[in-house]
Amino acid sequence: MRQVSINLLKISPILEKILTVNNLTKKFGYLTAVKDLSFSIEKGNVYGILGPNGSGKSTTLGIVLNVVNRSSGEFSWFNGNTSTHEALKKVGAIIERPNFYPYMTAIQNLKLVCKIKEVSDDKIEEKLALVGLLDRKNSKFRTYSLGMKQRLAIASALLNDPEILILDEPTNGLDPQGIHQIREIIKKVASQGTTILLASHLLDEVEKVCSHVVILRKGQKLYSGRVDGLMASHGFFELKSGNTDSLLAFLKSNPSFSKVTTNGNGLITAFLSEEMNSEVLNRTLMEKGIVLSHLVKRKESLEEQFLALTKNEAK
Amino acid sequence: MLRLLHIEFIKLWNNRVSRILIISYFVLLTSIALVAAIKFDIGPIKFHLAEQGIFNFPYIWHFNTFVTAFFKLFLAIVIVSMMANEYSNKTIKQNLIDGLSKKEFVLSKFLTVISFSLISTLFVFVVSMVLGLIYSDYNELSIIFSDLEFLLAFFVKLMGFFSFCLFLGILVKRSAFALGFLILWQVFEGFVRGMLRWKVFDGDTTDLVMGFFPLNAMWKLIDEPFSRLGAVQSVADQIGEKFEMDYGVHWYEILIVLGWTFLFVYFSYVLLKRRDL
């Protein structure tokens, strides 16, 4: 029954803005860490903030989470109806390293968080079970491995059943098993309809989990929108033929291709400007008497898109 | 308010070192009663400290608040480290992210300071009352409850001192360095006093000016009680010396320390607000 009511909430026509950031700027002395950044986060989506190290991701999150002072610009939580620290009680966030009291057990630490967030502490066991730490609940925090610390941080962030879960590099420094565990937890949380904001420099992580993405470079926004919008190109063909010259001539005269490049060993890359499947291309070429020895149709990965985007801006 | 105190209580009580220090502090406060047990009985010399009048009402209020104030150093360590540890564990960052405002954070620490001071004052009150009722020569109600301003001074003194520790903890962020700074500041005040007395002012003006320095102001709240003791007075009379001292607690002394307390807490907040964590 509960599930039903949650779904009803999700399809409500009012587009609820969880976080709005307007022209945010942060300067550390001469360095501008975040420059005139604007974006907004709507309920129910999974967002990624993507950018190389030092691009201002953590600074941006620090500002909206009340630990870093902004230089100029504004941000507001939940349409600006509450003060930041009240709003943060409805947010779950972990940034960088997990920070807890090392001399306290998992349970004691979580009880403290409940007290701060002003929620009852009867969900502690449930959340510890979700992240698989129930059997270590009475161990002191300092005895935990990094992976366990990170999972405890997620449990802590989920204690208030937050409207939005903010994760900053959640898999940083973990071993493959730890990374896998964290991702599974994130997917589980996302499937329950929680809005997620995930900052990462790992592209496949964002690609796997997020529906929307904000790309930052040197504190500036390069792109913000849907992940599939970013990958909206029609892809490209990789072609090889004994008859390279006539193949090139054909491709260049065909308006379906926007750009054709060759590399040293005869591999031709032809970028599509409109949708075309490989069967059609192959048949047309056969009719023209051009026989292919190699034909692959590919779409750029987010990684290639991202590198292209950041490289263009660097010029 | 209770929520903030409870948060701080969880943090302190689960830390073994703080717990041990807090318990030892209150044990020490009670141990002032042991002074009563000092008793020499060597042939012709019979000496029982408790019967020398130190536990007489209302003198006992003065004596006990003065002596027990020295134990505040134990709690100073607790307070400096409860602040500095928040920085070294980076839990202050997590607290703020979890939804504690910076104001609430400083307030929770200050409320702890007030609680420590209040509980200490109550402790000293109860211990002194019991000792006095056992050993005092005067037991009239009006005498018992006179000179109670020493307890107020005691409370203000502790609160001011702990607020200073709190501020240093936030300023320096490392407990050992903050305690070092505290000692350094004490030396600094001594140095300033020396320089003023030597080069600038006469004795009285130096005292007046020094009264505005935080540690000195706290020290002057409760004057040393020993020269007021009957036995000491009579010895002084015999050798023709007379102490003309004003032992009272003065309202302006209290005001100065309260002013410092306010400034320390306020600057703690300003410092925290302006810092990027």
UniProtKB/TrEMBL annotation, chain B:
Keywords annotated in UniProt: Membrane, Transmembrane, Transmembrane helix
Signal peptide start and end residues: none
Keyword Transmembrane (UniProt): yes
A Pfam family hit: ABC2_membrane_2
Spans through the membrane: 20-40, 60-84, 110-135, 150-170, 177-196, 251-272
Protein's recorded name: ABC transporter permease subunit
Organism: Maribacter arenosus
Higher taxonomy: Bacteria, Pseudomonadati, Bacteroidota, Flavobacteriia, Flavobacteriales
